[in-house]
Amino acid sequence: xxxxxxxxxxxxxxxxxxxxxxxxxxxxxxxxxxxxxxxxxxxxxxxxxxxxxxxxxxxxxxxxxxxxxxxxxxxxxxxxxxxxxxxxxxxxxxxxxxxxxxxxxxxxxxxxxxxxxxxxxxxxxxxxxxxxxxxxxxxxxxxxxxxxxxxxxxxxxxxxxxxxxxxxxxxxxxxxxxxxxxxxxxxxxxxxxxxxxxxxxxxxxxxxxxxxxxxxxxxxxxxxxxxxxxxxxxxxxxxxxxxxxxxxxxxxxxxxxxxxxxxxxxxxxxxxxxxxxxxxxxxxxxxxxxxxxxxxxxxxxxxxxxxxxxxxxxxxxxxxxxxxxxxxxxxxxxxxxxxxxxxxxxxxxxxxxxxxxx
Length: 358
Fold this sequence. Notes:
This protein has 358 residues and is an alpha+beta fold. The chain is 42% helix and 9% strand. The strands form 3 sheets. It has a 6-stranded mixed β-sheet, covered by helices on one side. A two-stranded antiparallel sheet has the order 7-8. Strands 9-10 form a two-stranded antiparallel ribbon.
């Protein structure tokens, strides 16, 4: 488990493609499939180790406040030109015209969309609440099958073209990774076990909300998929994960079947992937989907507000489990909306996935 500080955070290395997916691919008999994923796994492991060995960064972990931060994003995009040295060559700064590189422009737009959701929906200026500049690097490494947030910036691979496409194509992936930064600056959820699964779920929730907000979709109109558009045409699947129906995002000869559980009845006990953080996140993901669709309308308003309240409210422990998080969402619903439909819908959503709230 990562070191913790009561007054600071330890940035973790968070990738959008789980290790178990890359591990499955690395065992393929086809070298065109196995090679890129094996190299991605090795690269991710090296960066994860360096991150774990880094000194704890001490900053206040407090709810967002209205400071003098700007209401405008401060984005800078870099091009790694298929190398691994970060951040790479600067190619677009805030306010500059689009480049001829679609990856740069998509990343720029996705960083801006995440900034806008946080500001317009929740009054928060960037992921730290204080206008933190948003940095992104594209074209990382050769056929790199992932995207990640390393505690300081976003990094996007181009994919191998066989299983994964360019990781800038899915705006929810950008929102997902930046939300790891939001969590880092607020609840500081430990990246292990149920708290780690909550960390991953928070990123899926707000990643999905960024997409819904950008597309102007209600909860009923949204697809509730994470990473739709990332899978190459040869893959039998629609996305990396489904919040609506965990365990159904893909079923492919090479990738295998999506292993996410949808309820505590199927909770996965494992020591891999920091205690199954990318697997068991399906449980709180589905709870949020059930709440958002029960309430209807725009998911970032009532349902999203409650999750944001808990994440930034200062009461969520770094080692919180599903049940303690669920109880806080019930309390947040009662605090914000009283004993109405919202509180009842929260109780019902958690009950349906088998997480106790009493």
